[in-house]
Every structure is written in structure tokens, then in C-alpha cells.
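Hello again, I could really use a second opinion on something today. I owe you a coffee for this, so here goes:
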Amino acid sequence: MRKYFLAERMKNRHTYTEKLLVLTPLITVLFAAWLTSDYFIIDSYNWWYMTLFPGMLALICSSVGNRDKKMENRTIWTLPVKIDAVWDGKNLYGIWCMGISLLVFLGITIVVSNVLLQTAGQVFLIQPTLGEQALAVAVLFVTSLWQIPFCLFLQQLIGTFPMILLHMGSYVVLSVEWSLHSFFMLLPGGITARLMCILVKILPNGLVAQPGSITFTPELLDWKGLPMGIAASVFWFLLLWLAGRRWFERQAER
């Protein structure tokens, strides 16, 4: 499987794909520092997981899937390769990109917050500790895994632009509305936003998760939701990965 992952990395060298891993989190953090300095840290997380992060993942998956699809995947079907391993390699590359982008985001957030503290004397009204931020990023990674096979499958099925629209539209709706209910784990798009309420104390609408904020309820801060959300995310990831792999194999058999 390693050689298939390395093949995907080689295909995407010197493209916009890996540039996104730095530029997207950098833009997110700098805009949050500029526009919402008092709530800089939690707003940077909110803007990241609600819009720019899923958008970046959709673009990465479109690049990964489109390189072979431009030739109707003939370069894959005619080679002596394991079709299921090709699918695995594409997913692993997308997951690798996702992990790198999250580490970059965490690093930039920590650096900018320290700069604001030391040079401007900025006081953040809500300031998660480094440990809380590291945990939030780790949970973001796990709860976002499902997006990779989902976007790759949609890209192969309906094309790049419809995939981006469908993914972003459904993700935002589920994050804003579905995550607020007790059944948030039944669809993967609502899980991340719900768990960020617990970890960084911010609601999907960008308000602080505290009494008096619109859409706030005490159950949103219940730590029991954390293991349930993580388990559900792993389930959805495995389901989408395996279903996508089977579909990809069947395309080669036709």
C-alpha cells in the first residue's frame, strides 16, 4: 500500500494541492487575528472547521481524483495494479494532506497567539490551553476522516464542481443545525461542530458556548458526547472507505 501512497504523492508534486496545506490555515488564522482579536483562538478554530477546512479537503480530493479521471481512469485499468490498493493510496494521500494541514493550523495558531500576547498585550476573553488545542486538533483529525472517501467518491461519480457544491452545502447545513441535536452522530457532518462545543467552547454559529448565546443548551457541553462522536466518526469513515473501494473495483470490472 505504501507504494500506492507514494505514487499519489508523486502525481501531486509541484501542484496547488500541497500549497493549500499551508496557505489555507495561514489565511484562516491571520484573518481571525485581524478581525476578531478578543476571541481570536476560538474564532480561528470555528472558521477553520466550519468552512475553509472542508473546502480545502474537497479541493484536495478533486485534484487527487481528477488526475486519473481526465483519462477516464484508463491509466489505472490497464496497469497490473491492485484496484483496491489504488483507492487506498488515494485515500491515504488525502488523509496525509489533512494531517499536515491540521498540524500547520495548530502551529500557526499558537505562534500568532503568542505574538499577540507578547507584542500587543492582547488578552483573549476565552483562551484554550495548549493541551486543549492539541486535543481539539486530534479530534478534528479523527472526525474529519470520513470527508476523504466521501469527496473522492463524489468526485468520481459526479465531477469536481458538483462534488464541491454538494459537500460544502451539506456540511454547513449539518454542522449548523444537525450538530445541535442529541442524534448528531447519525450523520457525520454534524459530529465535528458538536465536539468543538465541548473542546473549545464555541457554537457552530460562532458564539461562545455559554448561557445566553443563541442555540446554546447545557447538553452541548456534555463530555459524554465526545466518545460517542469519535466512535461514530470512525464508523462512518470505515463505511465510506469500504463502500467507495468496492464501487471503484466494480468500475474496473466493467
The mean pLDDT is 87. The chain is about 70% helix and 0% strand. The two ends are 24 Å apart (CA to CA).
